[in-house]
Write a structure and sequence with these properties.
This protein is 74% helix and 0% strand. By secondary structure, the protein is mainly alpha-helical. Helix 2 packs across helix 3 and helix 2 crosses helix 4. The chain is globular.
């Protein structure tokens, strides 16, 4: 039986690998996301989930308020680093300020949602 904390850590590691891989591999040949600026929705969702997973992994160790701050800062810096790496490590991807902004917004919304529902975080323990 997998303990909740181990599952949350495994989910976080998987999600970081997933985001990193999709961000740094060539996506040529794959269909474009249909709606205008549809990739921005993907960025928002990816970083919303990343921030939730970070918070859930930290909350038991450092408390709710500190986990919110630490998780938000990590997610924002990670998003910025990934955007920079797209320009440095890839030939067909380029860093976009708008992507970093949407990543940060997804993290901010996740942080606010958890803050507003912080009493419900007891299920982690």
């Amino acid at each position: 039986m997998v303990h909740k904390k181990n599952f949350l850590l495994l989910a976080l590691v998987f999600w970081i690998v997933f985001i990193t891989t999709l961000s740094l591999v060539s996506l040529n040949g794959l269909p474009k996301i249909s709606p205008k600026n549809g990739d921005k929705y993907v960025h928002f969702i990816f970083y919303f989930i990343l921030t939730l997973l970070l918070i859930l992994n930290f909350v038991d160790k450092v408390g709710v308020k500190r986990s919110l701050v630490i998780s938000f800062v990590i997610a924002v810096f990670y998003g910025i680093i990934i955007e920079i790496l797209q320009g440095v490590l890839t030939e067909n991807r380029k860093p976009e300020f708008a992507d970093a902004l949407v990543n940060s917004f997804g993290s901010l919304v996740a942080t606010i949602v958890v803050f507003l529902n912080r009493e419900r975080l007891n299920f982690i323990k």
